[in-house]
Amino acid sequence: MRRAFALARRDRGAAAALQHRAVTVVVSAYFRTDYATAAATAAYPGSAIAAATVSARAGDRTVDGDARVVSFESGRLARLTDGVVLARAGDTVALCAATTSRDYDASSAIKGFVPLMVDYRERSYAKGKIPSTFPRREGAPKEREILAMRVIDRAMRPLFAKEYAREIMLQCVVMASDGGEDPGVLCVNGASAALMASSIPWRGPVGACRVAAFATADGDGDGYEFVVSPSDAVNEDADFTLFYAGNEGRALMIEAQANRRGVPEAVVARALRRAHDAVRELLPPQLELAEKIGKPKSPLPPPLVTKAMKEKMYDVAKARILSLYEEHIQDKHERGRKMAELQAQVIEEIINDHADWVSESNADEALLGSAYFQTCARVMRERVLDDGVRVDGRGVRDLRALDGVTGGMPVVHGSALFERGNTQALATVTLGSLEDQQRLDNLTGPTSKRLMLHYSFPSFSVNETGGGRGISRREVGHGALAEKSLLAVFPEETTFPFAVRVNAETLESNGSSSMAAVCSGSMALMDAGVPITEHVGAISIGLIMDEDEDSGEVKRYALMDDIMGLEDVLGDMDFKIAGTRSGVTGIQLDCKPEGIPLDILIEAMERASEARQRVIDVMERAVSSPKKELKDSAPRFGRASIPPSLIGKLIGPQGSNIKALEKDTGAKVSIINDDGELAVFGQNKASYDAAIAHIEALAGSIVEVGSTHVTTVKEVLAFGAILISPGGDEGLMHVSEFAHERTENASDVYKVGDQVEVKCVAKDARGSVKWSRKALLPKPAAARPPGREKPRFAVAKKNNDE
Length: 802
What we know:
Blueprint: H1 15-20, E1 25-31, H2 38-43, E2 68-74, E3 83-89, E4 92-100, H3 106-111, E5 116-122, H4 143-156, E6 168-176, H5 183-197, E7 207-215, E8 224-228, H6 232-237, E9 240-246, E10 251-258, H7 265-280, H8 283-293, H9 307-325, H10 332-353, H11 355-361, H12 365-387, E11 402-406, E12 414-420, E13 423-432, E14 438-439, E15 448-449, E16 451-456, H13 473-487, E17 499-508, H14 513-527, E18 537-547, E19 554-561, H15 565-570, E20 573-579, E21 584-591, H16 598-622, E22 636-641, H17 647-651, H18 656-665, E23 668-671, E24 677-682, H19 685-699, E25 708-717, E26 720-724, E27 730-734, E28 755-763, E29 769-772
Parallel strand pairs: 5-6, 16-17, 27-29
Antiparallel strand pairs: 1-2, 2-3, 3-4, 4-6, 7-8, 7-9, 9-10, 10-21, 11-12, 12-13, 13-17, 14-15, 18-19, 18-20, 20-21, 22-24, 23-24, 25-26, 25-28, 26-27, 28-29
């Protein structure tokens, strides 16, 4: 164990400072690997395959066997910070800090909004690298860093009390990385430990881990084995990967993806339970840390929107809100307009007719507006739980109207439009060469990716002004979810050597726009001729839970298939699940209460599987398989070959020939090996065909005496022209070989760039070629002087018989 640093610095004698800097507390959790089968170990040596188990022992300082230590240390660094932890996992180190503002934000308290900000940064020095940027320092957050910020936020936010209403900031800086651990997972644990040690009121702790699943012949019943907290190398080989965060009894955040095919829901359920058991072992060390050095928690201010205000609003507005809901308005804006008008009427009525109560309770329009919002939620929730009827009149299992079409956009390589109620997404596909794939400069994980999905959410999609402020974190997160959901069916590089960019444009939004991006993206890929194995459909499952206020026990609940925007805002969960007909390919969980029981989530996955079949039915009616014929505007890739002896001629001096070929055709030609095998990538059909035609001409361009070739005039001389064959053979065609007739000036007949069909009439040992056009022309009849067209006499032939 690291020794505590010096008890005091001799030049600073303040007793309080001495106590503050006196102790460095380290508590640890240990992940121990157990190899269940020799086959698993042999297949993935050095990895935690099969029945990997996890144990944590707070305060135990010995590391035996191959246990890996996850530790939380505080008291040595950043001592002015409210709550700070140095989190370690192996040789990966992250500093996690939690701070809060002194100022109370009444506006956030009234709205019930937690003003939480998360910043996550991976320093290049953590891997011993200097940034490759022009100023040689880190710049704006990368996509991976933004995704880590969102994960930390979603894991922490549900456990903050809305009454606190002070700005909270979590900052995580990755300071060292051994390349084997995902720093994002470590920072979820570190941020939780920092909050536990701080004065910020928070109902933690939270634990996080990764679980990888591998399809094996001897798996536990379903053919899959699990690895808890896998290294990045193991994770990339997995069939299914799960990033899970939870507390003692519930799940708080889930990110998951399949890497090769859809994974059955039963396997995902097992992975969730294995992950939950693992994260529970990370909670006692955090509690021990808080017990030893944690600061007293700040008291929560009383809620501005009191229980009396909520009850008064409920009594006055319930019947009218219920009546509005019973209209089953389908249009989002029409419903919103009527709800806003009703809010103004109800608040005015309360202020005018209950003036004494308003004065006594210190209520105002803002507070009553918040009470009205909560009443809308309460009425909606009661109607779903009691009657199974939703705001737009659907039952809990009903989907909105679905539609899908492909090929609506000209020029683009592939396009598709997917609609679900008032949510509409247009996806386009652009194909490119492997040189167009995205290069990734991260501390861990892959170094490039061929499939890129970019999600856009313009303000006009919800009939609002604004926009033009760059890419939001939400757009990055939704795009990443859709991308990883489609990755499971994306073809391997060996069978489809292209980079692919999918743009998902949200044109209308009333909830589940990221799931619409998955569906439209899958259809657009097939429209572009990308050989994906099958369609990926997606659905979002919502939840209404009725919990006991004292114990937190779930008394009753209702799952809702295909939630719309209002149900997302007023409900408890947005559980996004994408997959094929056979299994799950992508998952993302957002929740508002203090976690969701696993049994409910597992039931929701089964519900999503049933709903997904109906979504895929609609998608298959639009396009059921990848198109065989690509658009003329789409790129082409193919193989060609030439005799090995022609490779030099293809390249030319200092690459001049191949550069000219690529410039003229717009295609990219790569030499695969010394046997003359070539890879040809054309920007479109015309580009590809031109390059192939040139290569075929080169292959048939070996010059031999007597062979005929179509050559190009390279230079015109006084006594002839220099011609070059498609194979690069140069030679002189003397002016006497132009034609049978006499030619005075070569420049009168040919100019540079002309195409001339000629015959090789001579070739010496050095390869010098002599060309002739005359040899291909018929000989003219013998010419006679004028007036002598007929012979003056004829010579009789001697008869041998005489």
